[in-house]
Amino acid sequence: MWDWSYAAEILPGLLKAFRNTIGAALAGFGLAVVIGLVLAMFARSRWGPVRWVIRSIVEFIRSTPLLVQLFFLYYSLPMLTPLSFSAFATGVLGLGLHYGTYLSEVYRSGIEAVPRGQWEAAKALNLSRVKTWFSVILPQAIPPVIPMMGNYLIVIVKETPTLSAITLVEVLLSAKNTASITYRVFEPYTIAGILFLLLSLVLSFGVSRMEKIMKRRYAG
Amino acid sequence: MNQQLAEPSAAEKPERPVADAKAPPLVQYEQVTKRYGELEVIKGIDLTLQPGEKLALIGPSGSGKTTLGRMLATLEKPTSGRILVEGESLWEMRMPSGKTVPANDRHLRRLRGNIGMVFQHFNLFPHMSVIDNVTLAPRSVLGLSKEEAHERAVTMLGKVGLDSKLSEFPSRLSGGQKQRVAIARALVMQPKVMVFDEVTSALDPELVGEVLAVMKEIARDSDMAMMLITHEMDFARDIADRVVFGAEGRIVEQGTPADIFGQPRSERLRSFLSRFG
Ligand SMILES: Nc1ncnc2c1ncn2[C@@H]1O[C@H](COP(=O)(O)OP(=O)(O)O)[C@@H](O)[C@H]1O
Ligand SMILES: [Mg+2]
A interface mutation test: which of B120, B127, B132, B173 has the most A CBs within 10 A? Predict the structure, then answer.
């Protein structure tokens, strides 16, 4: 059933596509980390309209599938605007926006766990809003939620095959292409599965290490 | 209101600056009310603080003392009435046209520069060392250089007896030490008036003394006005120029420590004081 020489023959191609998978996942996650933070901060704006706009954006993005958003960004946006991005850039942008809204919830839980007295002390010391955020609130809000953020990185990795819908040749699409040429499905899909498994294991290990470090740091 | 002038005990504290009767009061509450939903917790307060004045605010818990102090620190906005600092309203700005409009951030920050607050639960920044807690605002708000801020902070920490703990983190300090750091952190900004909200009531009894001692020293040496919200009656008697007794959102009685503690007039105050033995 399993043909080792065939597996060895297709491995380099699959690994090359896997680089796309990793690249898109990491870049998408990085973008989501930034977008999530911006959303979480503006969701606490003193201006009601700003809060409302942010809440609507988050609600909208979260209640539509990633696939629809990717199609929109890749196929519709260039028709509506002068903007047009490569498949990779669109994938990163889509992942960043989509998971940014989820990460904003993670940030929110971290921010809400910072006692109100911290905001008040900062105000009594006359710190600016920006200084309060970056020197007082976020350094306390973010470390405890880093493991939760890491879990979203794993989710994003597993979501990357969706990007094949906008022609990004990530590892699963590459496996499918290989299979359609050779009519051998077993090896390519198995290898793709193993690659995902290995990456997830490595990331899970990283997250649980992080969890332990944070627990130690924030216990007592 | 300006009882220091006629009041004999002012003479016993000659090093204290005596307020110029013509200068506007440093702080002036005008018909201030505060309501949380249906609950009116401050019911029309008029109160002034002169520059350098040490005012003790006493009263049963729930009477609105904290709310009164928090409103001066701009942590709460009055429902009605005004709070003036050196004649300027905290929450309103006068435009060149003479119209008053709601205060913007710049106005609030400018006036807030005159005001400091020390909290019951310290509210130190737990992720920063003692020295970073104390230098953060001088550097960022007053724009002092790292060296200047450090020097000022060390001096202030010396005054509260903690200059040996510069790189310690708050979690490794006792409650009394934490509160002394918090006092230094507020003092280093050199406000003209400081609210101390029951700064010893979260402390173990054996740690209260060290904080009160520091506060007494500050009251003696500094020309900063102080609003001392406290349940420590001996302490209030010792350092206050004037004592205000409030209950249920109103001022019931005020006067010199000798009057308030020696000859309480109202039944409310007498029964309140009797609980302190
Ligand atoms: N944020 C708030 N929301 C609702 N009620 C409050 C709030 N803060 C204070 N109160 C109420 O206002 C009253 C006065 O509180 P406070 O000013 O803390 O009194 P004190 O400091 O004299 O004990 C209390 O009944 C308290 O429950
Ligand atoms: Mg109180």
Answer: B127
Distance (Å, whole) CA B236 – CA A63 = 60
Q: Do residues B70 and B57 make contact, with C-beta atoms less than 8 angstroms apart?
A: no
Nearest CA to ligand 1 atom 5: B36
A38 φ, ψ (degrees, to nearest 5)? -60, -45
Q: Which amino acid is at B6?
A: A
CA of A146 to the centre of ligand 1 (A): 36
A140–B141 C-beta distance less than 8 A: no
CATH of range B27-114+191-274; options 2.60.40.1220, 3.40.50.300, 3.90.650.10, 3.40.50.1480? 3.40.50.300
DSSP state, A145?
G
So what's the ipTM on this one?
A: 0.90
Q: What are phi and psi of B67, to 5 degrees?
A: -60, -40
CB contact under 8 A, B75 and A124: yes
pTM of the full predicted structure?
0.89
Q: Where are the alpha helices (DSSP H) in B160-254?
A: 175-187, 205-221, 233-239
Residue having the nearest C-alpha atom to atom 3 of ligand 1:
B36
B107 at the A interface (CB within 8 A)?
A: no
A28-33 mean pLDDT = 97
| Fold exhibited by the domain A4-219 | MetI-like fold (1.10.3720)
| SS3 category, B115 | strand
Q: Are B181 and A121 in contact (CB under 8 A)?
A: no
Which among A121, A136, A133 is positioned nearest to B186, based on CA atoms? A121
Q: What percent of chain A has pLDDT over 90?
A: 71
